[in-house]
Amino acid sequence: QQQVKQSPQSLIVQKGGISIINCAYENTAFDYFPWYQQFPGKGPALLIAIRPDVSEKKEGRFTISFNKSAKQFSLHIMDSQPGDSATYFCAATNPSNTGKLIFGQGTTLQVKP
Amino acid sequence: EPEVTQTPSHQVTQMGQEVILRCVPISNHLYFYWYRQILGQKVEFLVSFYNNEISEKSEIFDDQFSVERPDGSNFTLKIRSTKLEDSAMYFCASSQTGNTEAFFGQGTRLTVV
Question: I need a labelling partner for A3 at 20 to 30 A (CA). Which of A27, B41, B57, B95 fits?
């Protein structure tokens, strides 16, 4: 019940295309869903996050879509750029207030010029 | 912009030796964490720390691990007797509360030989 399942494992997109990464969770107590971007040799950097009281959140080219009934959420990267090439992790946390993040397995995105 | 800083960036140690990984969290944050990432795998939660005590720990965080906040700025992870399988990137993170954005450091690459 503590897992977050992420797909696909890897993704290749042409420059200007839309990148879509999906995550699913089981624990309905999760109430905070961030996405992190990680470049090789660097720490995860918070990209965008959503709480389950909204179905969508957009920040620039990045959008999270959230489906509470299906227990799924996804990251959409519009107009993908080569600089977006990185590993993306979804995560979830529950209101136990310890702040523990449970990460998905990660998606390696390559945006081809 | 405030950031989490970690030292050293890379540590090589002999199996059985003790190591201490150091972190300076963001100054107004109250929650502190350690995560681990084995090469090519997902980020795994180790421990969360609040109000000078451990608030949650994972199964990975056994008796060989300990954390400490020795002063008002540093947060350390000690591994008492390192094993080969402890080789990984270790990330420190901090957040203002247990249910808000966590910011990660650049990581310490620990290599046990």
Answer: B95
List the end-to-end C-alpha distance of chain A, in Å, as a whole number: 40
Q: Which of A43, A46, A98 sits opposite B106 (nearest CB)?
A: A43
Ranges assigned E (strand) in A39-94: 45-50, 56-59, 62-67, 72-77, 86-92
Tokens 């056994």 correspond to what residue? Answer: B62
Q: Note the pLDDT tens digit of each residue in B91-111.
A: 999 999 887 889 999 999 999
CA distance B44 to B91: 10
- Are the Cβ atoms of A99 and B33 closer than 8 angstroms? yes
The set of residues, in sequence order, having a beta carbon less than 8 Å from that of A101 and lying 6+ positions away, is A34, A91, A92, A93, B33, B35, B43, B45, B102
Q: Which of B4, B99, B103 sits opposite A97 (nearest CB)?
A: B99
Please tell me if residue A109 touches chain B, with a CB cutoff of 8 Å.
Answer: no
- Give the residue among B53, B110, B42 at the shortest CA–CA distance from A105: B42
Please, are residues A85 and A111 in contact by the beta-carbon 8 Å criterion? Answer: yes
Q: How large a percentage of chain B has pLDDT more than 70? A: 100
